[in-house]
Specification:
The complex is a heterodimer of chains A (about 375) and B (about 375). Chain A has about 375 residues and is an alpha/beta fold. Chain A contains twelve helices and twelve strands. In chain A, the strands form two sheets. An eight-stranded mixed beta sheet of chain A has the order 6-7-8-3-9-10-12-11, sandwiched between helices. Chain A has a four-stranded antiparallel beta sheet with strand order 2-1-4-5. With about 375 residues, chain B is mainly alpha-helical. The chains are: A alpha/beta (about 375), B mainly alpha (about 375).
């Protein structure tokens, strides 16, 4: 809105006839991604479908190697040449116009990047070009999308840097190495919002940061989301982060979304033993450490997947039928799906009835006095 | 020389000041990164000057003796007469002890006096250097520029197309030609292209200019200078470009894997901008110091090439000086070679600091 009218990035090619509900900005349908290796294809993402609504934030959680990052990259078509998107479509909607990202040509894709969907990566420390000043990286980004007025770009950059609680006077003309890790992460966040994308993908936005900096980032994200109303997909293995920021949570296991539901449903009406295992492996704020349990075993080899349900070798509820059939996604509640044959037997220890206040209060183990002030 | 000695003078005057301010001022100067670098450079030059002075005199044969005997034979002078004439010509006492000659030499050096050639009697060494050095700087400088730009471009290309046919072909060629010594290539060119096939008029290309052409800003002069320099330049480029290609390829390949390159793509930057400012500039950083070091060494390495092609640069005159045991000329040229290596290293540091902001900060603290 500050930088003049937005041009639509797409012309005829890439346009899709597929229908998408009006309030959905991103619809991923039956997406599968495989990495080509000498041992055979690694099925990193298998048959993933979900809708992202306008202004919504969706958390993708799961262990390392469950395909979260690959999924985030595939949506932006940023995967290297060893990865192949084998099936599916990624439909993007702006102002009623639906585009399949996977069929965009190179130049259309370049314009889609950052202007429509920005992605903030896991390794913020190394995400900025070390030989360019922060201001130049903002200018580079804006210029690539047709904005050339340096003064205006810097003005907007300053505004965004203030939003992420950085001092533009100090940061804008600094080189990346002159900033701390947390500052760089926030610079990236500001950079991500420069072109006012509809969708922001955050890949482990707080993983490499200390707990105080994590707090600042989380608070900033929460505020920004309210003010700027973008949709957000954030990838994390940090359940407390999901509890704080997400409207909906998708649990991924072996490349598949195995449970998807509202944040309350996922935390209090868990319907998949894997999600339950993840929840139980986080130390609770109240209760004893005996409640802490880890999931036995390790994630499967994505080249030679187990038969049936991919989780059955590690699942405490597994029965003989679980080794036979890969369960489809069952509708287990309102907008809540679980790919488990025995979903009715899954009982959340936090109890359906014994819900204690907001999820964030229960899940969050890292709240500090300083952050408490910042939040209030 | 005068520019090189000025920091010494500066530190000398500051020592003359009184009290506390003196100490802090010396501290400021000593603490400055660049002053330290320059002092180190001057020390290096001094050491090399001393070493060459003594090494040159350890060479077998005595040019003064042979000069005196030559005078006796050709001009019918008596031995003492000839000796007196030699002493007056060489501006140093040939019979003085070695340490006396050394002290005199250093004294003269500080005044910019490199002595007089022993063989081309009466010609000051500084005049000879000024006459021949520009040709070497021209040919070597141009060759290095071509080689560097070509190598970087091809290296980036190979990295972007790695594991394709063009990459494999270029890598093999680069590895092969960077293994060929430059003098061998020069001899091959003379023998095959010049003598056997008559493709290159290498006799006409001798010298640094054709007869009758004088240095001015005309196209004719520039064309002629390029014509005469083309063979040395070809040899320098061919024997160094392979190294740049391989180095740039490996640097680019690793830079392409950096997160900031992926992020640049995610930001929707144009390919040209990513290649130049995100990949190229970062991949090139380590090559800058290699470039400076090679500037120094290629000036030294020009000796043999200029002999082979009879290109009248500093290397050519050094070759003749070695054959005729012209001490003063040798010393003068070694001094120039040393200065060129030391100065190019200094320049590399300066340039590196300009290109890499991380070094700039470390250097200024």
């Amino acid at each position: 809105m500050m930088l003049g009218t937005r041009r639509n990035a797409f012309s005829r090619s890439g346009a899709s006839d597929a229908s998408v509900p009006a309030d959905v900005v991103l619809s991923v349908r039956q997406l599968s991604v495989a990495y080509v290796t000498r041992r055979g294809p690694v099925q990193a993402v298998r048959d993933v479908s979900f809708d992202l609504h306008g202004g919504e934030s969706l958390a993708l959680i799961g262990e390392s190697g469950s395909g979260k990052t690959t999924l985030g990259m595939a949506i932006n078509r940023l995967l290297g040449s060893s990865a192949q998107i084998t099936t599916g479509e990624v439909l993007y909607q702006r102002q009623g116009k639906v585009t399949n990202i996977l069929t965009l040509n190179k130049e259309q894709l370049r314009r889609f990047h950052w202007q429509e969907c920005a992605i903030v990566f896991q390794s913020a420390l190394n995400s900025l070009n070390p030989v360019l000043r922060v201001a130049d990286q903002f200018v580079d980004t804006a210029r690539a999308h047709g904005q050339h007025d340096r003064g205006q770009i810097e003005q907007r950059a300053s505004h965004l840097l203030r939003l992420v609680q950085l001092d533009p006077g100090r940061v804008l003309h600094a080189y990346p190495h002159e900033l701390s890790g947390g500052m760089r992460q926030r610079v990236l966040l500001a950079l991500g919002l420069l072109l006012e994308p509809q969708v922001l993908v955050l890949d482990e936005p707080t993983t490499a940061l200390d707990i105080l900096t994590q707090r600042v980032i989380i608070e900033t994200l929460r505020q920004l989301k309210q003010e700027l109303r973008f949709s957000m997909i954030f990838i994390s293995h940090d359940l407390s982060l999901a509890a704080e920021l997400a409207d909906r949570v998708a649990t991924m296991y072996a490349g598949r979304i195995i449970e998807l539901g509202s944040v309350r449903d996922i935390f209090y009406h868990t319907r998949h033993p894997y999600t339950l295992g993840l929840l139980q492996s986080v130390p609770p704020l109240r209760g004893t450490l005996e409640d802490l349990r880890s999931i036995p075993g390790s994630p499967p080899d994505l080249i030679t997947l187990p038969s049936g349900c991919k989780f059955h070798p590690r699942c405490p509820l597994a029965g003989p039928e679980c080794a036979q059939e890969d369960p489809p996604a069952f509708v287990v509640g309102d907008e809540h799906t679980s790919a488990c044959l025995r979903w009715q037997e899954v009982r959340s220890p936090r109890g359906e009835e014994a819900a204690i206040g907001e999820p964030s209060r229960v899940m969050h183990s890292a709240r500090t006095p300083r952050a408490e002030e910042a939040a209030s | 020389m005068s520019a090189a000695t000025s920091p010494l003078v500066a530190s000398g005057t500051s020592r003359g000041l009184r009290g506390k301010s003196v100490r802090s001022r010396i501290g400021d100067i000593a603490g400055n990164y660049w002053v330290g670098r320059i002092v180190k450079a001057i020390l290096t030059i001094y050491l090399v000057v001393t070493l060459t002075f003594f090494l040159v005199r350890l060479m077998p044969g005595n040019p003064v003796e042979s000069f005196i005997l030559n005078l006796v034979q050709t001009q019918g002078l008596t031995y003492p007469q000839a000796q007196a004439q030699a002493a007056s010509l060489f501006s140093f006492d040939v019979n003085a002890p070695l340490w006396q000659q050394y002290v005199d030499y250093l004294g003269n050096l500080i005044h910019g006096n490199l002595g007089v050639s022993i063989v081309s009697t009466g010609t000051p060494v500084s005049v000879m250097i000024l006459q021949y050095l520009p040709w070497t700087l021209f040919s070597v400088g141009l060759a290095l520029l071509i080689s560097f730009v070509l190598g970087i471009t091809l290296g980036i290309l190979m990295a972007y197309r790695r594991d394709t046919l063009p990459d494999h072909v270029l890598s093999t060629i680069a590895a092969f030609i960077s293994g060929v010594p430059n003098y061998l290539l020069a001899i091959l060119i003379v023998v095959f292209l010049g003598i056997r096939l008559h493709l290159v008029p290498f006799t006409a290309m001798r010298g640094s200019l054709s007869p009758g052409v004088s240095p001015n800003l005309s196209l004719q002069f520039i064309g002629d200078a390029l014509f005469h320099a083309s063979l040395p330049i070809t040899v320098y480029v061919l024997t160094t470009v392979g190294g740049w290609m391989l180095l740039m390829k490996s640097n680019t390949t690793s830079t392409l894997g950096e997160d900031y390159v992926l992020v640049a793509r995610a930001r929707g930057l144009r390919d040209g901008r990513i290649t130049a400012a995100y990949v190229g500039r970062n991949a090139m950083l380590p090559l800058i110091s290699a470039l400076a070091i090679s500037v120094g060494f290629i000036v030294g390495g020009s000796t043999v090439i200029e002999q082979i092609f009879v290109y009248q640069g500093i290397g050519w005159i050094l070759g003749s000086a070695i054959v005729s045991l012209d001490y003063t000329v040798m010393q003068g040229i070694f001094l120039i070679l040393t200065i060129s290596v030391v100065v190019s290293n200094l320049l590399a540091d300066l340039l590196y600091g300009k290109l890499d902001p991380r070094v700039r900060i470390a250097g200024s603290q």
